[in-house]
Design brief:
The complex is a heterodimer. Chain A is built from 17 helices and 16 strands. Chain A is an alpha+beta fold. The chains are: A alpha+beta, B alpha+beta. At the A-B interface, α2 of A face loops of B.
């Protein structure tokens, strides 16, 4: 009898989503879908509001990476207030924003690795779910748990000192920033008591990377084969091809590494990217116009960034990048679980950048804001921890927002996540008589690798139940399992 | 002739000048009575009722009532604290006050009073009124979602001939404080900034400059409203 399996909600991800898997009479997976079941509406209710309100209002989309929305909106408004497209700010303006962003990157990547994904590595995908969580890590691997908490705290402190608050600050304003970094604040991060200082964060980031590489070495077949598939990859890169998560040009490469989007100015993103709406999900499906819906979808995020960029500017991360690239002979890497490897290289890069920025005296400058002739349209693009984030605003002569279009990082990964779910469901569930919790978690592991922020909303981890229902063709529940 | 008056607030003897209101005398003596519509230099009207006190068991507005010898004022008592909290809650539910994205946050008197009186959640249902923004002036925006109709802008923002920039429009529950459309177009810069400053909430916004005060340096970030008065 055909069955439909529902995994709702998906756990240890940001936000709320569910997975349905259709299984036919022969026990084979016929279809699978990742549904995003929350509707937000920010693009609509920001209309009519004063444009300078957008960076503070729109960041409320998310409690995990509000800085990304804050800065993407501020970058779009920089264009509107005539401060240029990413490079027109004063030195302190740009560097304070970069510090804020790298702090955010660091804390978000750490949160994902230590709190959300590490339980799967430490206890196994089919490990006891009662232990397979952050509390289990705290009990069994207290040193690792402390590192995860303290590293995240450090990133949050960087945000607090640049944006005013750890969550939902106000540091970036159109054309610049509202504060610089005092010497005392700088020293708090640079010379803070062990372990809360930049040098320790670099050291621990190297340790986390070694932890993953060791896991990979011992589980090579599983890590390499899990939800591995070819795809295009898209991200910002600096004009010279370096990894740059704050500003650059848009580049996309195909599965062979051939450029399919040639370092274009993101102000014209809508010339290259289109979004498709499907009836069963609130999340749209973006694709590259030139290649069409079927072939134009792409991945974003850590894996995509390391697949598109040519090099990394900080020495330790560059060394790791070279090892990462060598693993696939310089070709783009399509292995979903290598997303963790890429993420940890970026974590190390962020720690190095934070340390270097803190030593930059420009952060104490006082020329915080710059403005020029006003325009009516601005696009801001930034690499959020989860991938490329687009903010597009248009205003009227009265300074009110008339249009807002946001393509959130996770939206870009919609098709890749669906593909990963499908591959994993096929690999783990095809022909199986009984669907176990471990199999269902495997599907979640595939989604989790993309670190999705499904509703881009705050939520309390650990409070979401998991419910699985087996239903027959008439949609009647024949078996239900919850945890 | 003796120009001083002696009276009591919550049992404490206060010496004041004849003709002072209870609010003026209390504040001069370092006793905080909360106000919202009251504004220095403007004749008080007692329309927001935040300063309500009990005098000889009767409710009176302290901003409009002059002091007199032997008067016994009750101020910081449970009954009045709860009533003031109710007034704040009613203001929150009758408009659309979204502090998280409001640029007056940290400098807003209504928000500060909410914190001072420990308003966690209003006890009254939100009315979510349909309100708009008047952005027609090149200098300011008037956001009706946040207006508490204290009339401070009506009383303090005038042109050189004494003509008001702001006035009431409509009646009953549709009443709004609006900016004169013609005068708004030529509003001088300093007056626009003053209008924003005098507005106790975020209803009058000076255009194009927002959130330029970092969190931690805003008026009520570190000390509650009233602490500048209390001794």
């Amino acid at each position: 009898m055909p069955k439909k399996i529902t995994i709702e909600p998906v756990t240890r991800v940001e936000g709320h989503g569910k997975v349905t898997i259709q299984i036919d009479d022969f026990g084979n997976v016929r279809d699978s879908r990742l549904h995003i079941v929350e509707f937000r509406g920010f693009e609509r209710f920001v209309q009519g509001r004063p444009y300078w309100e957008a960076p503070v209002l729109v960041q409320r989309l998310c409690g995990i990476c509000p800085v990304s929305h804050h800065l993407a909106a501020a970058k779009a408004l920089d264009v509107i207030v005539g401060a240029g497209t990413g490079t027109g700010l004063t030195a302190v303006g740009e560097k304070m924003r970069r510090l804020m962003h790298y702090g955010q990157f660091f804390q978000s990547h750490v949160l994902h690795f230590f709190h959300l994904s590490a339980p799967d590595f430490l206890f196994g995908i089919d490990g006891d779910p009662l232990v397979r969580n952050i509390i289990g890590i705290a009990q069994e691997h207290p040193d690792l748990a402390v590192q995860g908490v303290m590293m995240r705290k450090f990133g949050q402190e960087v945000i607090r000192l640049t944006a005013g608050k750890k969550i939902h600050g106000t540091g970036a304003i159109p054309g610049g920033i509202n504060k610089n970094l005092s010497i005392a604040e700088r020293d708090e991060l640079l010379k803070g008591a062990d372990p809360l200082n930049a040098d320790k964060m670099v050291e621990w980031s190297v340790g986390a990377l070694d932890f993953f590489k060791n896991y990979h070495k011992n589980n090579q077949e599983m890590v390499d084969g899990f939800a591995s598939f070819p795809s295009n990859h898209l991200s910002l890169v600096r004009e010279d091809g370096a990894l740059d998560i704050y500003h650059g040009v848009l580049r996309a490469v195909d599965n062979d590494g051939k450029k399919i989007l040639h370092d274009v100015d993101y102000q014209e993103y809508d010339k290259y990217i289109e979004e498709e709406v499907r009836s069963w999900s609130y999340m749209k499906f973006p694709y590259l116009k030139d290649l069409g819906k079927d072939k134009g979808w792409y991945r974003v995020g850590p894996l995509a960034r390391l697949n598109t960029c040519d090099f990394i500017t900080t020495p330790l991360a560059q060394k790791e990048f070279e090892e990462f690239k060598a693993y696939t002979n310089g070709k783009p890497n399509g292995m979903s679980l290598h997303m963790h490897w890429a993420r940890l290289i970026e974590t190390l890069h962020s720690a190095e950048v934070i340390r270097d920025l803190l030593n930059d005296p420009d952060l104490q400058n006082e020329d915080l804001v710059t403005k020029g002739s006003k325009l009516h349209k601005g696009v801001g693009v930034i690499e959020a921890p989860r991938g490329t984030l687009f903010h597009h605003y248009e205003i009227n002569d009265l300074d009110q927002i008339t249009l807002a279009n946001l393509i959130v990082s996770t939206t870009n990964n919609n098709q890749p996540m669906n593909t990963a779910v499908n591959l994993t469901a096929n690999a783990f569930m095809n022909g199986q008589r009984e669907i176990t919790e471990g199999m269902m978690n495997a599907v979640e592991v595939a989604i989790r690798a993309y670190d999705p922020c499904l509703s881009c909303a705050t939520h309390a981890m650990g409070q979401m139940p998991l419910e699985v229902s087996l239903v027959n063709e008439a949609n009647e529940i024949i078996h239900r399992r919850t945890k | 002739m003796n120009n001083t008056v002696k009276f009591k607030i919550d049992g404490n003897i206060v010496t004041a000048e004849k003709g002072q209101t209870i609010v003026e005398a209390a504040h001069a003596a370092g006793i905080y009575i909360p106000t919202l519509c009251n504004f220095k230099g403007v004749k008080p009207k007692g329309c927001c009722r935040m300063c309500s006190v009990k005098i000889n068991s009767r409710y009176m507005t302290a901003c409009t009532t002059p002091v007199s010898d032997g008067m016994e004022v009750e101020n910081n008592i449970d009954e009045l604290v709860d009533m003031r909290k109710s007034i704040i809650e009613l203001m929150f539910v009758s408009g659309n006050h979204f502090c998280p994205s409001c640029e007056k946050s940290g400098n807003c008197e209504l928000q500060a009073l909410g914190y001072r009186y420990q308003m966690l959640v209003p006890r009254f249902p939100f009315s979510f009124p349909q309100k708009g923004i008047d952005a027609s002036s090149p200098k300011i925006m008037k956001d009706q979602n946040r207006c508490i109709m204290c009339k401070r802008c009506m009383k303090t923002i005038k042109d050189e001939n004494g003509k008001n920039y702001f006035a009431f429009k409509n009646r009953s529950n549709k009443v709004e404080v609006v900016l004169d459309a013609e005068m708004g177009k030529t509003m001088p810069d300093d007056l626009a900034k003053l209008a924003m400053e005098n507005c106790p909430v975020g209803s009058i916004i000076y255009k194009e400059i927002g959130y330029n005060e970092p969190i931690g340096t805003r008026k009520y970030d570190k000390t509650p409203i009233g602490s500048e008065i209390e001794v």
